[in-house]
């Protein structure tokens, strides 16, 4: 009996269960998709997973877009030049922006859960470059073999 508790403890340490994952997104001045970008700009998560937004270049942040938050999701806003880690629990699609570069189209999508990409709608009242970037992201997400 005195070996049972330590054995259970160590078995718990090495058990393979479902664990939340932390994904990394870089905030960049440019990459192969353009200027002022998140890399990657589309991430699929399970509820409870997190994203660590890393300021790989200066003068970027990550903030939720109010009109692109699922029901029950909490808004968030990081500080410029600082790393922020956000846990996504509410299923649905989240629009993310860099506040200083939103008008330049620095946005990304986070899909939490099993919602089909075809169900994602881009609001009409976004800055034109942000709206266009969202449409490009969705097109790549719908056709992953074409580079999404």
From TrEMBL:
<keyword id="KW-0813">Transport</keyword>
<dbReference type="InterPro" id="IPR008972">
    <property type="entry name" value="Cupredoxin"/>
</dbReference>
<protein>
    <recommendedName>
        <fullName>Pseudoazurin</fullName>
    </recommendedName>
</protein>
<dbReference type="InterPro" id="IPR002386">
    <property type="entry name" value="Amicyanin/Pseudoazurin"/>
</dbReference>
<keyword id="KW-0732">Signal</keyword>
<keyword id="KW-0249">Electron transport</keyword>
<dbReference type="InterPro" id="IPR001235">
    <property type="entry name" value="Copper_blue_Plastocyanin"/>
</dbReference>
<feature type="binding site">
    <location>
        <position position="106"/>
    </location>
    <ligand>
        <name>Cu cation</name>
    </ligand>
</feature>
<feature type="signal peptide">
    <location>
        <begin position="1"/>
        <end position="20"/>
    </location>
</feature>
<dbReference type="GO" id="GO:0009055">
    <property type="term" value="F:electron transfer activity"/>
</dbReference>
<feature type="binding site">
    <location>
        <position position="60"/>
    </location>
    <ligand>
        <name>Cu cation</name>
    </ligand>
</feature>
<dbReference type="InterPro" id="IPR000923">
    <property type="entry name" value="BlueCu_1"/>
</dbReference>
<feature type="binding site">
    <location>
        <position position="98"/>
    </location>
    <ligand>
        <name>Cu cation</name>
    </ligand>
</feature>
<keyword id="KW-0574">Periplasm</keyword>
<feature type="domain" description="Blue (type 1) copper">
    <location>
        <begin position="26"/>
        <end position="112"/>
    </location>
</feature>
<feature type="binding site">
    <location>
        <position position="101"/>
    </location>
    <ligand>
        <name>Cu cation</name>
    </ligand>
</feature>
<dbReference type="GO" id="GO:0042597">
    <property type="term" value="C:periplasmic space"/>
</dbReference>
<dbReference type="InterPro" id="IPR012745">
    <property type="entry name" value="Pseudoazurin"/>
</dbReference>
<dbReference type="GO" id="GO:0005507">
    <property type="term" value="F:copper ion binding"/>
</dbReference>
<keyword id="KW-0479">Metal-binding</keyword>
<dbReference type="Pfam" id="PF00127">
    <property type="entry name" value="Copper-bind"/>
</dbReference>
<keyword id="KW-0186">Copper</keyword>
